[in-house]
Specification:
Elements (H helix, E strand, L loop, with lengths): L17 H8 L29 E7 L2 E5 L5 E2 L5 E2 L3 E5 L4 E5 L3 E5 L4 E3 L8 E12 L7 E2 L4 E13 L2 E15 L2 E5 L3 E6 L5 E5 L14 E3 L4 E5 L6 E8 L7 E5 L3 E5 L4 E10 L12 E5 L1
């Protein structure tokens, strides 16, 4: 699928967000004539289907499928509801974000989550990676074939083959399997293999440093892949792109070395960060932000 055109910008980059660009202005030399960027065009809003939902799809990038039971999947649409019994699947280059009244859930590429219509509410991660964020209230219980995860704060959960990997970025989470529990605080992780008790808590890998581009914004033309690099740390990495001033992860990619070319399809001001993964596969704390301006 072709990258999104500038006219189909994600909600967080549409008008009303011009203040985001101003935040970078102080970091850009006054002699640079490219400091002032044109406002992107507002895309037409989708009309949500009738009926209440469990959550709202606040962000959809590239091909995301939404299905209920045995019905044929349909393309997910921003600002539409997700209901009990439905499943979301992201393509290898796609992203999606769900907004609940008390939490948010971001699906990385090649991920599948479902929301069983059962008495006890839960989110089931079938494959891939999710970032779950909440305030003081606990997240909706997240379940895989290997484990259950509960708690509040910010947690990254991956399911790879028959292993569940949990990284606590902020707050406190409990990982349970086989009648045993592991409690995770900030910068701690656990893993659960099929049929086994949780292992951990382990120290998460430290955040990489030496980001290029760093605090001085790099200006690149729209549609051109941005070359990112950082100091080696860990056996693999996770890279995220976010808008300046916002917390919606617009793109996420895994990397096997300390560098990545990231295509950015929209004009605007962005920040990027990277986290290292250790030999177990646990993802560590994110780095500080690098700055990118796409013209």
């Amino acid at each position: 699928m072709r990258p999104s055109s500038p006219s189909r910008l994600p909600t967080c980059l549409r008008p009303g967000r011009l203040a985001l660009l101003a935040l970078l202005a102080s970091a850009v030399p006054a002699s640079n004539p490219q400091t002032l960027l044109a406002a992107p065009q507002r895309a037409a809003k989708a009309t949500p289907p009738a009926g209440a939902g469990l959550a709202r799809l606040s962000y959809v990038e590239q091909r995301v499928e939404q299905a209920a039971g045995t019905t044929a999947p349909r393309g997910a649409v921003e600002n539409s509801p997700l209901r009990f019994g439905e499943t979301l699947r992201t393509a290898p280059d796609a992203m999606a974000r769900l907004e609940f009244p008390w939490m948010s859930l971001t699906l990385s590429p090649a991920s599948t989550v479902s929301f069983p219509d059962e008495l006890v509410l839960s989110t089931r991660l079938e494959r891939g990676r999710v970032l779950v964020q909440s305030g003081q209230r606990e997240i909706l219980k997240l379940v895989t074939d290997e484990a259950e995860v509960r708690g509040s704060g910010r947690v990254i959960v991956r399911r790879e083959k028959d292993t569940t990997l949990v990284s606590c970025v902020d707050g406190r989470f409990v990982v349970e399997a086989g009648g045993r529990r592991v409690t995770l605080s900030v910068a701690k992780g656990a893993l659960v293999r099929a049929g086994q008790a949780p292992q951990g808590p382990f120290d998460l890998p430290a955040a990489p440093s030496g980001l290029v581009p760093g605090s001085d914004p790099l200006f690149v033309p729209t549609g051109e892949a941005v070359a990112l690099r950082w100091n080696p740390r860990g056996s693999a990495y996770s890279v995220e792109l976010l808008p300046v001033g916002g917390d919606t992860v617009l793109l996420q990619r895994d990397a096997s070395e300390a560098g990545l070319k990231l295509p950015v399809a929209w004009p605007g001001a962005f920040r990027w960060r990277v986290a290292a993964r250790d030999e177990r596969g646990l993802e560590g704390l994110p780095s500080g932000d690098g700055q990118i301006v796409v013209e």
